[in-house]
Give the backbone structure.
Amino acid sequence: MRVSQNSLNPSLKNQIIKTFAQTISDFKNISQIKTFLDDFFTPAEIETYAKRLAIAYWLKKGRSYENIKGNLKVSSATIAEVKQTMDRPGFEQAIKAIEAEEWASVWTQKIQKFARLDRK
């Protein structure tokens, strides 16, 4: 990833990063967020960050490096880099959110199945 060589004043840097995070937080739905991401980042940047999150999630689920490499088309070095950082709070929060959504989806399907059976 390319990082600017012109460093910002730390206070200004903190302020603009908070503004960036708040902007994303203020979006009302996934469609708005997706539109922002598509317009703001290159397709390669979006894919890079999405893959990093997928790697962390799949490592947490116990998938092997080979499985992750084959499915996500990433190197062992990339997987190792993500593995070293996935215990950070941001990764942990993101994975918990994915797991919560996954859990909710599973239970929604089960409830719908039982509701259909109840109508018969």
Observations:
- The mean pLDDT is 91.
- The chain has two domains: 8-40, 43-119.
